[in-house]
Structure formats: C-alpha cells, structure tokens
Protein 1
Amino acid sequence: MISIGMVLGGPEHVGFDREVRKLMKFCRENRERGFIGSEINVVYHVPGAVVKPDYVGVRTGTFSRKERCLMVQIAVAEEFAALDDTDQIRRYIFETADEAIGLGKTELERKGVHYDIETDRALLDEWFGEKANV
C-alpha cells in the first residue's frame, strides 16, 4: 500500500502543501483497501526559504524488511512547488507518485519483497480523478 509524507523547506508553497495533504488524507482513509503486506512511503521534499533538497528527481530511501516498507523520496523542483494552478499541481503530484511507486516496485522486487503496484495505481487514479477533492 502507498503512504504519503512531506518535508517542507519553508512556509511559502501553500498550494503545493494543500494538494499533497489531500493525497495524504486520501491514502490514509483508503489504507486497508487491498493491503497485501508491503508498503511504499512516498515522501515529497519541498524546497523553501529554510532548506532545499540536496538531490534532484526521485530516489529510494530507507527500507525496513521487518515492516516491509520502502521510502521513496521526491525532490520537488522549485518551479513545481511554486505553481498556483491546482490542476497542474495535482498532475505533478500524480505523475511523480506514479513514478515513485514504479521505482519502489523495482527496488522491492530486487529485495525479494512482493508489492502490488496495480492496487496503488488504481488508488492514485481514483484520487486524481476526483473533481471535488476537498
């Protein structure tokens, strides 16, 4: 199952923060649906006035064999963090989360851990397709 986290480098990117929190809530509310035992924790690193990510793109992070959980980190580029258009922000979050679970699946398989990417892709599709998403 997918879970979402965020590290904010400052208070300035309110729109991006708001949309990631909506996905966090959606994933939390749908946590038990189709859960097979392994998890990918996608963490957005959002640049700000206090701190900026020291890497670019998507990378794997900590893996816990005991908890069967892999962290995948996404360094959000400044131009995406600063977007004002909610639809563009949501599309960016959706596309990068999908990329992250793809990378996570590859890494988990390499470690011999089964991960059901189709369930998480369906969950992301459902979140992205919601029009009201309040």
Protein 2
Amino acid sequence: MSIRLYVGNLPKESVDRQALHAVFEEFGEEVSTKVIKDRKTGKCRGFAFVTVPTDEMADQVIEKHNGQAFMDTTLKIEKALPREKAKGEKESSAPTPSPTTKRTASTNKKRQTTTTTASSSSGSVQPDPRWADDLARLKEMLAAQASNT
C-alpha cells in the first residue's frame, strides 16, 4: 500500500516538479511527486505530495528530509491525512452559504474561520493534529493575557 506524504512550506513561486523529485530520488523509482499549483497563476500553492511504496520508507523520508532546506525554505514533511477523512471534517465544520446570498471569498473565509473557532472551543470539533500544539500554546497565551488584565 502506498503512503502519501505532505510536503509543506514550499516557496510560493514556480517550483519545478523535477527539482522537488530530485530531493527524493535516492529512495528509488517508486517515489512520485506532485506539486500543487494555483489554477489561475500556475504558481506553487506552498505544498506538494510525495508518494512512497511503504510505511517504512515514508518514515525514512520524514526522518531524513523533514527540516531540510529547499529553495531557501525549510521543508515540513509529514504523513498526509486520508482524503475522505479530511473532506468529512471540512464538511462538518464549514458553514454552507445559501444559494441566494452572494459573498466574496474573503467574507466566506472570515465566516468559516469564526464558525470553526467557535465550534472547536465547545469541544465538538478537534483541531488539525498538525497544528494542535501551536493552538494549545496560543490558548495558554490568551488565558495568561486575560488573567493579567
């Protein structure tokens, strides 16, 4: 069974798939890369996926290349969440705008962020595990600020 790895913190400029693939070529021909690009601009959206054949190889890639420099940025590599699971979480936490209401993308994003934050504080939605530690630290900092005032 193949394992997908999320490669984050890529520069938001034109990232060549072959250049990224060259980083992982030592692991063999079975490794494939896919740079995620913006449909309008064609520039990298800041992340990519690397697919490796085994879980052991995935662990080796993460151990060796997580934190490695690539095009003046530090790579962040971790196992990708299954697509169905991520899609289900997004649908359950994101509000669905009514078809009669017109909203701009920024308005939808603000609304989605507000709703997600409110529902996650009630305990019904768990934070993304990739950012859970950062979120916990932020909550502690906010609590400390509130108690100081």
Protein 3
Amino acid sequence: MSGPNTDFDPVEVAALQPEQVEAARDAALSAIAEAADLEELKRVRIEHTGDRSPLALANREIGALPPQARKEAGQRVGQARGAVAKALAERQAVLEAEHEERMLVEETVDVTLPTDRTPRGARHPITLMSDRIADLFVAMGWEVAEGPVVEAEWLNFDALNLGPDHPARTMQDTFWTDPVDHHVVLRTHTSPVQARTMLTREPPIYVICPGRVFRTDEYDATHSPMFHQVEGLVVDRGITMANLKGTLDHFATQLFGEGITTRFRPSYFPFTEPSAEVDLLCFVCRNVDPASCRTCKGEGWIEWGGCGVVNPRVLTACGVDPEVYTGFAFGMGIDRSFMFVSGAASLRDFFEGDVRFSAAFGTEL
C-alpha cells in the first residue's frame, strides 16, 4: 500500500499562490474604495465576490489540494474574502448615507411656494344664493320642497287656476314637449311643486321651492329662456296677508340688509286672491334721495316679485278645504336677487360657463 504524497507542492496551483490571492484582494479593495455610487458598488460586488471572481475561483481550488495543504490555503483565501466583504459593507453604509443626504437636498419641497398653481373650481353663485335662501327659511322652521322640471300640464296650469284659454299656455310663453297632445311642458314656474306638496301632505304646510324654470324669453342682459325662481307656500289655519307681509319683510332684511322692507302694489295672479306685486326698498339710496339713484331710477323702490293669498280654487283643486285652511304664496327670481346683492351687470354671465365669473362670485355672500 502506498502512503500519502508528502512531496506535493501547493505552489503549483497558481490561483492559490499568496501573491495571486493578495493581488485579487488588493484589486477588490481598490475597486470598492473607488466606487462612486451604489450602482457602481453593485457592479464591483459582482465582479470581485461573484461566482466568477478570482477569489471565488481560488476558493474552489482548495478542494483539489491534499489534506495537509488545505488549511493554510483555506486561511489565506478566507482572510482575503473576509477583508473584501468587510470593505464592501463599510462602503455600502457610506454610499447609502451620501445617497440619503443627496436626496434630501435634491428632493426638498419648498413649503413657502404657493399652493394654488392648479386653481380649484368654485360653486356657481346661483347655487350659493339658492342654498342661502333655503337656509334662511329652514331656520324659520320651513321645509325645502322639490319637483321635476318636466311637468304635467295640469299641475303647471290647471291646478293653479290657469284656465285652458290663459295666454301663458301658448307657445309664446311655454316650452311644450313632443308630442303636444301628451300635455307635458317644461315648467314655467316652481308653483307645480306647491301643488304637488298640497296633494301629498296634510296642512299645516310651510315650504320653500327653489329651482329652474323655462319660458320662451329672448336671451339678453336681463332675460333668459332658462332661469331660477324661489317660491314659498304656507297653508294653515288663520293665515292672512299680515303673515305674508311679515314673512317677506324678514326675507328682505336677511337677504339685503337691516332696514330693507317691502311694499305691496295691487295686482292679479290666477292662483292668488288678493294678489300683489312686491317691491323692495332701494338698498342703495333707501328712498332718501331717489332722484339721483341709478339703481331704482328715481322710484325709491325696486320690483322684486309677486305674492298673494292662495286662491280657494287652488286649495280645492289640490284637496285642501278652503273653509278650514287659508294660505299665502310668493315668488321671485333667484338670478335677479343675486344681481341685486352682487351688482352683476348681465344675466348672460350666469350661463356662459366662464370659470372666472364663478371664481369672482362663487363664494358665500
């Protein structure tokens, strides 16, 4: 039996020679130290510690040595690889810290810069005015009632004592839907909401009805085929014109300022009897020097809307006993009221969709 080969010279394995191991270690340490960023360090790690790196290849050759030569070669390669791993970890920590500092500088947010580079939209001023009026009456204990804009002819006219021959039914005032014999219209006022309310609930009734209405008006600075109205209805026991006057005086004061009152002028509406036109005390001159006032044009008063005691025929048509209950109703334009409050010059601005108009007036008044 032959004995172990004690004459083997490990120097014959070139990759394990001390000079080769030290050269591979020094090359790795130099490359690590010169890595300028994390991406370059990643490339260095693959090149000097990967499966095809010089030290990894040298480590594989250790198994080919006889037992008596493996220990020394293993220590030499292991120390070199350990030094490289330690240098990599230290350089990784340094480069990560530099990267974070650079990010803090390059990605700093200047909190003093303006935040409105992309301007937000504004609620339309008519919507705000409608909400303000609704809130005013809700605070008085009233309710807000709504109805469809495409309405039955009976609710829009007949239930409100507007007979078949009334001129408001003609194509000159009303938008009729096709076919006409279906008797459906775009509502010409929000009064149908009042009729629906009386038909569906028992008195006492205190409702405010804001909404869009449609009439075949010319489109100009003060008229539009689509505009907004707010109407109010009260049906209860013992209601009189005095209750109506007090309600409208409070409404005018809250909307236009302290001291603004109303006056009634006799008028005629089919759905109220007696009826009156409502005028506002001029909120500019307050009827002190009306001759020089451009707002009221020397009158001291400004026309605002219509009102009156609910006609008993309307109560009967809507199922309310006029022998037990009385009521009052009123209506005025929301667009016109907003023009009074804001000083807006043309009704066209309300409907042309220019965001600058909403931005200017689309805030709480």
Protein 4
Amino acid sequence: MSGATQAHLQLLELGVKSELMLFDGMDHGFYTDVTLPESQRAYKLIAQFFAEHLGTKRSNVGGKD
C-alpha cells in the first residue's frame, strides 16, 4: 500500500483530485469477482468519481478540439 499511498499524496500535492479507498481484509484485485458486495461498492464509488470529475468539458489542452 505504500506505493499507492505515496502516489495519492503526490497527486494531492499537485492539486489533482484524488481519492484513496481501502477495503480492509480484501485481496488485491478483489473487484474482479463482481459477485462480492465489496466489488459492487467499489464499482459504484469508481463510477461516481468518474461522473463527477470526467463528466465536465476540459479546457482546450494541446490546441485541438
């Protein structure tokens, strides 16, 4: 987890919106089993984050639309 924690902190320091969700006691990649309640919760949280932060029009980066 230290790598994920460090990346999360660095993103925050750069002013990038970042959320770190921990699912205590779950194996790495647990979300690949879509029958788990924890997986369903993770997918819901991920979808909410994307809807909030990727659903808005971005500024013209790179000079092309």
